[in-house]
Amino acid sequence: KAGVTQTPRYLIKTRGQQVTLSCSPISGHRSVSWYQQTPGQGLQFLFEYFSETQRNKGNFPGRFSGRQFSNSRSEMNVSTLELGDSALYLCASSLAEGVGATNEKLFFGSGTQLSVL
Amino acid sequence: QKEVEQDPGPLSVPEGAIVSLNCTYSNSAFQYFMWYRQYSRKGPELLMYTYSSGNKEDGRFTAQLNRASQYISLLIRDSKLSDSATYLCAIPRDYQLIWGAGTKLIIKP
What we know:
The structure holds two protein chains of two kinds.
Chain A: E1 5-7, E2 10-13, E3 19-24, E4 31-38, E5 42-50, E6 53-57, E7 64-68, E8 74-78, E9 87-94, E10 107-108, E11 112-116
Parallel strand pairs in A: 2-11
Antiparallel strand pairs in A: 1-3, 3-8, 4-5, 4-9, 5-6, 7-8, 9-10, 9-11
Chain B: E1 4-6, E2 11-14, E3 19-25, E4 33-38, E5 45-50, E6 54-58, E7 61-66, E8 71-76, E9 85-93, E10 96-99, E11 103-108
Parallel strand pairs in B: 2-11
Antiparallel strand pairs in B: 1-3, 3-8, 4-5, 4-9, 6-7, 7-8, 9-10, 9-11
């Protein structure tokens, strides 16, 4: 069974540009979450989608947005990039069938390493 | 105060040693507790999760939960070179995981 696939693996952008990252979850998984990981802040939650609906959102500015498609694939977009957006962006999928099933096991991709110059 | 506190290390031990990694949490309402392992340039992978006080064992790994003192620990026995990684504790809440800072573990030959 294929794992969570994130593309691209590496990205270099300049300040002010925008970027779109892609995530393909494990087949059958309907929940997709996005996390930002930096050496200083660690792992921080961006948002979570289930059946194309955003169920929760972290404390990030509106420049960070996401969406989920009917096949559960997800994208996240960051507009007007800032130097501080340089990070590893991780996508995770889970079955998450039940409402409030917060003990669901998350399966992570290898991430997209974004560098903003 | 952060909701989940974890010493970032690094923690360096010789191969074969017993390692104890710890996390403390501030919210007594938390129900489930997870340990993830993350290798360099990879995403985290779930090692173990627990929701009962006491110990949960899986091979060389034991997860311990002490609700009264609000801490969790991960014990690694007979440590191997392949155990060198960052170990993160995580607590699920509201469709997200609240993470500790992660402890970098280095196993020396």
